[in-house]
Amino acid sequence: MGRFYITTPIYYANDAPHVGSAYTTVNADAMARWHRLVGDETKFLTGTDEHGQKVADAAAKNHMTPQDWTALKSEQFKEAWETLNISFDDFIRTSEPRHYLTVQKFLTAIYENGYIFKDVYKGLYCVSCEDYYAIETSVEGKCPIHARDLIEMEEENWFFRLSAFEERLEQHYAKHPGFVTPETKRNEALSFIKGGLRDISITRTSISWGVPVPWDEAHVFYVWYDALINYLTAIGYGSDHDEVAKWWPSSHHLIGKEISRFHCVWWPAMCMAAGIEPVSHVQVHGWLLLGGQKLGKTMVADGAVKLTDIAPVELTNEFGVDPLRYYLLRETSLGNDGEFSHEGITQRYNTDLANNLGNLVARVATVVASKCGGDGPRPKVDSTLRPHAEVAVSETAAAWNDFSPQRALEATWGLIGATNAYLEERAPWKMESGDLLDAVMGDALEAIRLVAILATPAMPRTCEEIWLRIGLAGTPSDEVFGASTTWGQYAATSPIVKGDPLFPRMKSDA
Ligand code: MSP
Q1: Nearest to 284 by CA among 153, 394, 183
Q2: How far apart, in whole angstroms, are the C-alpha atoms of residue 310 and residue 308?
Q3: Could you read off the pLDDT of 123-146 as tens digits, one per residue?
Q4: 299 CA to middle of ligand 1, Å?
Q5: Residue of the nearest CA to atom 17 in ligand 1?
Q6: Which of 135, 211, 236, 424 has its CA 20 to 30 A from that of 143?
Q7: Could you tell me which of 347, 342, 345 has the C-alpha nearest to residue 328?
């Protein structure tokens, strides 16, 4: 049994969640569920990033205090995640006292180690990114990501001596080839480091909504500097229930590519400066796009898309929770960008879920209920489906372990396809009751049992439902993976249930 600590970025509490934030969260959830399924001790952290200019502005615009505003917004995130059946173990809010304590302790350690100094900062700032841009990287004075006007800022700030870590970061990357995946993102981060690092301003006096700097109360920490530390707050860094030694060596940050510089360059340097090892792995993913642009709330504000088209709760009302989860995990390989569309979800739904999975479960249940006396027969030891099942189990496991949900689901759906083909060839619906028919149906039921285990991280409720329908007790997650996934164990404890279609077909113009 291993250990697995997975985190999402903490989402800005300036707005409600959208399907882009759901993308990361569903991926992290599926990975957490996979690791729990194989028996790893697992911790899954998500939460909200509540400080900084952007959140303070949103609160003011809504005539609320930042405290009341962020309380409201963090609840909206929790509600959306509950709707999407997200199994987080901890939800952190950066305005919590536990986070203030950790930030102050962590940054005081960096200060005392001599990596923080005072200087004047002048630059162009994007409030949406909460980040500075050099003139060269701005696009006609606008932010390259949000295409919004940049603001000129000049402040006396405390700085972090990032430049002192160039060599150590390079060494870290050389020593830990899997530190950042996929490799393209690792190479990008590494060439950024090799291009030379500038010291970074880490405090602000222009706003008061932030964590106070313990050695200079006129300043609060810059939002990114407090935000990154959330990953340590949740495991009790510096507190009397410190579990850093337990979780940090098996820690994984799942993040979108636009925040990779913070996670792959600044964050490991901050950890080194504070005297701890960096996180063990950063998995970078691409964007959900709409018309080729990063999907997000700015698009709603600009009138490019309706909020209902990208709000996770609306989408689950339209397609169901598990179909949306499936689409987000299956459509695009983690690391690449992918175009998001209602047509795309409808197509995946009709093909993979209604035609392949739903139809398989329905046709097997119908034949068994009408021709096998209702109880599922046992599988054959030497079934021709067995090698397909063995390949599906090993490839699905390897892909989940490799942070590749798309490949994992492809492998699982390979077994669904093989089982449908097996049934097509034998046409049990035309066969008489008897041993021959029982043997075919036993094999198909065994394949369905395995599919229900393998697809659990992606579609937990559907898999529980399938489990019950094929007459098994408990849930697929009760099984000990490995022992439960060897061929031949299907043994029903109750009669097969036909039930309504798992995925009624949708009109393709939905
Ligand atoms: N608060 C910072 C993160 C701090 S982590 C220490 C932040 N928040 S955010 O609300 O802007 O959310 C960022 C994350 O949401 C992205 O990194 C990504 O994981 C996810 N996504 C937001 N829009 C997305 C898409 N259109 N596509 C895929 N993921 C997207 O940055």
Answers
A1: 183
A2: 6
A3: 888 888 877 787 777 787 788 888
A4: 15
A5: 256
A6: 211
A7: 345
Whole-angstrom CA distances from 453 to 225, 446, 475 are 41, 11, 9
Per-residue CA distances from 193 to 123, 125, 225, 264, 283 (Å) = 21, 22, 19, 10, 18
Express each pLDDT in 386-427 by its tens digit: 999 999 999 999 999 999 999 999 999 999 999 999 999 999
> Is the distance from CB of 490 to CB of 446 less than 8 angstroms?
yes
Name residue 269's amino acid: A
pLDDT above 90 coverage of the chain, percent: 84
The pLDDT of residue 510 is 45
Model confidence pLDDT, tens digit, residues 142-171: 888 888 888 888 878 899 999 999 999 999
Residue 396 token pair: 């699905």
Q: Where in the chain is the domain with CATH 3.40.50.620?
A: 3-312
Q: For the chain, where do the domains classified as CATH 1.10.730.10 start and end?
A: 342-478
- CA of residue 278 to ligand 1 center, whole Å: 21
- Answer for the pair 385, 422: CB distance below 8 angstroms, yes or no: yes
Helical H segments across 84-165, by residue range:
97-112
In ligand 1, the atom with minimum distance to the C-alpha of 295 is: 26
Distance CA 28, CA 356 (A): 26
The conformation of residue 372, written as its DSSP 8-state character, comes to S
Instruction: Kindly give the interhelix angle for 405-426 and 386-401, rounded to the nearest 10 degrees.
Output: 170
Cα 260 to Cα 493: distance, rounded to the nearest angstrom:
50
CA distance 365 to 359: 10
Integer-rounded Cα Rg, in Å, for the chain is: 25
DSSP state of 287: -
Number of H helices, E strands in the chain: 21, 16
Q: Which pLDDT band holds residue 509 (cuts at 50, 70, 90)?
A: low
Decide if 54 contacts 99 (C-beta within 8 A). no
Architecture (CATH level 2) of domain 342-478: Orthogonal Bundle (1.10)
* Mean pLDDT score across all residues of the chain: 94
Its CATH class, for the domain covering 3-312, is alpha beta
Could you tell me the CA-to-CA distances from 211 to 98, 174, 242, 364 in Å, in that order? 11, 34, 21, 59
Ligand 1 environment, Cβ below 6 A:
9-12, 20-21, 23-24, 49, 227-228, 230, 255-256, 259, 287-288, 294-296
Choose the weakest-confidence range: 280-284, 375-379, 423-427, 443-447. 375-379
